[in-house]
């Protein structure tokens, strides 16, 4: 995580090396949270049962599809800053705040865990947002704003499912 890619020329985008490293580190945590939430959502999609199977199965598919696109966007931003994006389960496990699920919970517990996961991603993004402002990194700030908006809306929709 955060290692400089020695195969490329120096990055000169108007953000100093230390700030770019802080940005890449924050984005790496966001990537780990997003990927962990993707995996959990996909797992729940495969294993949901009960009277709301069809609607939850479809909802979870929509969510993990969106998350799959997001992980690519986040990883590509890390690369644009000149750093290597994390990509192993061990790195993600070390960086994430989204806990793994043991066993197969019931449908309502799945929804509650996804609410908590969506909110965890928002907190991670919000936590390092000040770094983007201090570095005047508008592209990363824009990415964080978009991610927070998606995750807050998704958490709201999931909470509405709980009643």
UniProtKB/TrEMBL annotation:
InterPro entries: DPS_DNA-bd (IPR002177), DPS_DNA-bd_CS (IPR023188), Ferritin-like (IPR012347), Ferritin-like_SF (IPR009078), Ferritin_DPS_dom (IPR008331). Residues 25-162 form the Ferritin/DPS domain. Transmembrane segments: none annotated. It comes from the Bacteria. PANTHER family: DNA PROTECTION DURING STARVATION PROTEIN, GENERAL STRESS PROTEIN 20U. Belongs to the Dps family. This is DNA starvation/stationary phase protection protein. It comes from Robbsia betulipollinis.
